[in-house]
Write a structure and sequence with these properties.
By secondary structure, the chain is mostly beta strands. It has 2 domains: 146 residues, Beta Barrel (Lipocalin); 41 residues, no CATH class. Helices cover 11% and strands 52% of the residues. The chain has 2 helices and 18 strands. An 8-stranded antiparallel β-barrel has the order 2-3-4-7-8-11-12-13. Strands 14-18-17-15-16 form a 5-stranded mixed β-sheet, with no helix packed on it. A two-stranded antiparallel sheet has the order 5-6.
Length: 210
C-alpha cells in the first residue's frame, strides 16, 4: 500500500513539473486562421459524416489568469452562425512539448444564433488533451458540441496559424546588412553611410536593425 502511495505522489509531481501555469507571451495572442474537420453524428444518422470548414479563432485575455477563444465564421446545422466565445480557459505550459495546453475549466451551454435568426442552445466542451498553442504561432483546437436535446453531436478539430500583424517595419539579418548598397536615412531624414542599430529608412522602407 505504501508503494502505491509513493507511486501516486511521484506521478502527481511529474504532472506538476510537466505542465506549469505560465503566462503565454502576448505576441501569441490574436487571430488564428485555418481549417477544421468536423464529424457529425445524430440519432437519425448514427453512421456520421465528415465535412471541411474554414474559420478563425481569436484568443485573448479574459481575466488575470484566464483566456477566451472567439470562433468566427463557424456554421451549425447548415447555417452560418454569429461569433461565439468559449471562456474560462487556462493555458498551461508543457515542458516536454514546449506548447501551451488549452484547458477549459468549466464546460457550458452557449447560445448560438445564426445569421438568419435561428437560435441553438449548444453544449460546448474543449478537448484538453488535444488543444494547444505553439511558440511558432500554431494552434490546434478540438471541441465537441451537442444540440437538439443531445440528438446531434459534433467533433471539430481545428488547426490554424496566427495572423501576422504588419507594422511597416522589416527586419534585416547580418548577411543582408553586408550586401546592402542603397540610399540610407535615419528617422530625422539625415543620410547615413551605413546601417545603424534601430530603425533605418532604406529606399523608402523602414528597416529594423538589431
Amino acid at each position: 500500500m505504501k508503494k502505491i502511495k509513493l507511486v501516486f505522489v511521484f506521478l502527481m509531481l511529474c504532472l506538476a513539473v510537466s505542465a506549469q501555469k505560465v503566462s503565454m507571451p502576448s505576441n501569441l495572442l490574436g487571430e488564428y486562421f485555418g481549417n477544421a474537420e468536423v464529424e457529425t453524428t445524430s440519432d437519425e444518422h448514427p453512421e456520421g459524416s465528415k465535412t471541411k470548414k474554414s474559420f478563425s479563432a481569436v484568443i485573448s485575455k479574459d481575466g488575470s489568469e484566464t483566456y477566451k477563444v472567439v470562433i468566427k465564421g463557424y456554421s451549425l446545422g447548415g447555417e452560418k452562425i454569429k461569433d461565439f466565445s468559449v471562456k474560462e480557459l487556462i493555458l498551461l505550459f508543457d515542458n516536454p512539448t514546449g506548447r501551451w495546453k488549452i484547458f477549459q475549466e468549466n464546460t457550458a451551454y452557449i447560445g448560438f444564433q445564426t445569421e438568419s435568426g435561428k437560435e441553438f442552445n449548444v453544449f460546448v466542451s474543449v478537448d484538453n488533451a488535444e488543444s494547444w498553442i505553439t511558440s511558432e504561432g500554431e494552434m490546434k483546437l478540438v471541441f465537441y458540441a451537442t444540440y437538439n436535446n443531445n440528438s446531434v453531436f459534433m467533433t471539430t478539430s481545428f488547426t490554424g496559424k496566427l495572423k501576422k500583424t504588419t507594422t511597416g517595419i522589416e527586419r534585416m539579418d547580418t548577411a543582408e546588412k553586408g550586401e546592402l548598397k542603397s540610399n540610407i536615412f535615419n528617422l530625422q531624414g539625415h543620410r547615413l553611410r551605413k546601417l545603424q542599430r534601430g530603425i533605418n529608412i532604406v529606399n523608402g522602407k523602414k528597416i529594423l536593425v538589431k
